[in-house]
Amino acid sequence: MASDSAPFEAPDSKAGPKRDANNDLKSLPLPEVEERLGFSPNGLTQGEAQKRLTQYGPNEIEEKKGNPLLKLLTYFWGPIPWMIEAAVILSAVLKHWPDFFIILVLLLANAGVGFWEEHQAGKAIDALKAQLAIKARVIRDGKWATPPSRELVPGDVIRLRLGDIVPADARLLAGDPVEVDQSALTGESLPATRTPGEAVFSGSIIRQGEIGALVYATGTNTYFGKTAELVEEAQTVSHFQRAVLKIGTFLIIFAVTLVAVIIVVSIIRGNPFLTTLQFALVLTVAAIPVAMPTVLSVTMAVGARLLAKKKAIVSRLVAIEELAGVDVLCTDKTGTLTQNKLTLGDPFAVNDGPAEQVILNAALASRADDADAIDLAVLGGLKSDGALQGYQVVHFQPFDAVRKCTEAAVTAADGTSFKVTKGAPQVILELSANATQVKADVDQAVNEFATRGFRSLGVARAEGEGPWQFLGVLPLFDPPREDAKATIATALQMGVDVKMVTGDALAIAQETAKALGMGSDILDASGLGDVKREETPAMAESIENADGFAQVFPEHKFHIVDVLQKQHHIVGMTGDGVNDAPALKKADCGIAVSDATDAARAAASIVLTTPGLSVIIDAIKESRKIFQRMNSYAIYRIAETLRVLLFVTAVILIFNFFPVTAIQIVMLALLNDGAILSIAYDNVRYKNQPEAWNMRLVLGIATVLGIVGPIAAFGLFSLGDKVFHLDHAHLQTLMYLTLSVAGHLTIFLARTRGPFWSIRPARVLLLAVLGTQALATIVAVYGIFMTPLGWGYATLVWGYALAWFLVTDRVKLLAYRVLNPVTTEPSSGVTP
Fold first, then answer.
1. Which residues contact 167 (CB under 8 A, 6 or more apart)?
2. How far is it, in rounded angstroms, from Cα 809 to Cα 299?
3. Where are the alpha helices (H) located in 140-291, listed in sequence order?
4. pLDDT value for 755
5. In whole angstroms, what is the distance from residue 642 CA to residue 288 CA?
6. Tens-digit pLDDT profile for residues 110-132
7. Dihedral-angle region of residue 156 (phi above 0 means left; psi in -120 to 50 means alpha; beta otherwise)
8. Cβ neighbours of residue 234 under 8 Å, at least 6 residues apart?
């Protein structure tokens, strides 16, 4: 057990490398470090670990949290807040006190809603970070456990394996050298070899090998003061966000241009300058999509939470858009298409040797501690639990991507020494001295196993320092997942081409693909040649048309993604190993499967927390729904801006009359922004084809809605002026209520491609719209901050707006048929 000696004195925790020569645990002799840390092979006791955690704090670099008050104040600084603040000041100068207070409310509401929703989005990111927390293998009280790495303390004994991100600064214990990638810390691209006794630093990645290590520094005391993060902040701008921001820029220019025309015309006509300026400022603020960043961040954050419920954790929020557009999904076979529950078949032994000896030697080259599926299947094939008694494994070399096999040095009960190895049959054959004599029989056995869907594992043994002798082949069967065939069929219906990617032999891949209904056009990746070269058009077409790939190494994955992207596909790629990281980064949407290494998870856009293909397809469905919500918002926001600006500008230019007051415009903006936030929770249907940003369609539909709206408003304006002979004050209230009701009804037009009733709106959206419009109606009827209109005219407005709503819906359907004739209303996946 751990010694009760006093915990060591922590190194100076100032930023940068620590260089205290008297207390440099990075370079002191290992025995001295072990003594200072109270080292024991059985690790610390839980009590001692808790004591040290209290003393030295969590193993994390605490993020600097900004002052919430200062953050709130930033919402009062910038072009939009300046315009609102100028309008507030002008209202005070003109002593328009109702305007002053309502515009002030707009200013405070914009700041408050933006601050709160960004805070909520931040909480969503924090929740994702918690779910993707790196875990460490640590021994406590003599038992191995996997607590979050933030719970590590100096003195802990940890196990570092291929693909692990080193969770804390540590000194390597006895074992073989390991290859460590420190590029994230030093910028050095080549892995460095680290031998027992040397230090490895938090944030580096184990590229080859496996070894125990003694933690000597955590958190802010680590050499580089860095910890690895698997979740990026939502700072990257996606294609969709860029497109919407371009729309925002266009609307700002459009609004400023029309407002400038209003100011110039008003000055020429001799209208009061300050009143005109106040109106112009308020109109500009109302027309500009102030809530756009908030709506986007809320929609993304809500979407991330929904995906998390589907067992898919988003490591970058913009990955939601990328996932919605995926049309080719390259997926691992093992664990995704199959159950990853290997069972051992009857072995093939060369020269008719005993099959039990093949299993025994393979078992000696296995280790249960690593919980590897192949090792567990081999060990499970032993006839008795005591079969390995009498054998002592003096050295174990775990699997790595370079050697592609495991190896163990063993001493038998009689003192004789020998080595055993297991791995891919072709790899083991290359090692074996008897390869020439047995190759034909081995190839025949491997092919026979493959036609039955069995993976093959070669086994060899070397006596003393003698040559390797091939012993036999172990067949391993990994049955397809029960839901895989139906899920692949669903993916095809959704326009996603699923391609199987496996390291197994061609025959196994073909057998599995046949069982899953994927097609049998499986390409042998070993024939791809130099993966850095440019493929010929014929080979690129073969890769594009293939149903899957066999005998794939990690470098092939990168090449496959690259070729498919050059063929204009949006590619999703699954992976789990450290060498899959380049392909996961290269893919438009890299997906780390549930048992992936830390390195693969760090490279991926989506991290799955449960095995199987169905979770990926569910995530694609959910991401397409999120995309639809943002698409609906873009159409609505453009249409609403065009509608208000065109109507107000036209009335001012033609009739020399402000159809609404500044205070009414402010109330329009307040109620619009309040209701539209709920679109993040709306019911939508995903399309049965990958999503792509169609600017022409969005602008076209929004323009149609934005032009029909002013025509309808002019009709009611003419009725009020010419038929009902309303004075200007009553006419302004009439038009305020018209713009408010008709504007909110536009939300229900923008959210569907079919008739407005084709998709039931979410209750929260319906209540938000009804609530804001009930408030707008009461304000207009009873004349709060405006001339009272009365229930008669309010009823007329609602009837008129609803009639035009039905007409506009028909016009919208016609516009869709003209602009996008092949597209109909999506028919799948209504969100409850």
1. 59, 134, 136, 149, 152, 158, 202
2. 25
3. 183-186, 239-269, 273-287
4. 93
5. 10
6. 677 667 766 665 666 566 556 65
7. beta
8. 121, 125, 297, 300, 301, 316, 317, 318
Quote the DSSP letter at residue 507. H
Task: Identify any residues that bridge with 193 across adjacent strands, giving them in sequence order.
Answer: 179
Instruction: Say whether pLDDT at 91 is over 50.
Output: yes
> Cβ neighbours of residue 355 under 8 Å, at least 6 residues apart?
346, 347, 348, 349, 472
- Locate tokens 């149903």: which residue? 547
User: Per-residue pLDDT tens for 585-621?
Assistant: 888 888 888 877 777 787 888 888 888 888 888 888 8
Query: What's phi and psi for 593, nearest 5 deg?
Result: -75, 175
Please check whether residue 297 is in contact with residue 620, taking contact to mean a CB–CB distance below 8 angstroms: no
Structure tokens at 173: 């214990």
Contact yes or no for 59/151 (Cβ under 8 A) = yes
Average pLDDT over residues 67-91: 75
Q: List, for residues 166-199, the tens digit of each pLDDT value.
A: 888 999 998 888 888 876 666 555 678 899 999 8
The pTM of the full predicted model, rounded to 2 decimals, is: 0.72
512-532 residues labelled b (16+ CB within 10 A) or e (exposed): bbeebebbeebbebeebeebe
**Which amino acid, one-letter code, is at 456?**
S
Q: Which two tokens stand for residue 324?
A: 């919605």
Q: What is the 3-state composition of the chain as percent helix, strand, coil, each rounded to the nearest 5? A: 50, 15, 35
Distance CA 173, CA 82 (A): 62
Active site residue 332: yes
| Candidates 332, 497, 580, 588; catalytic one | 332
Q: How far apart are CA 520 and CA 402, in angstroms?
A: 30
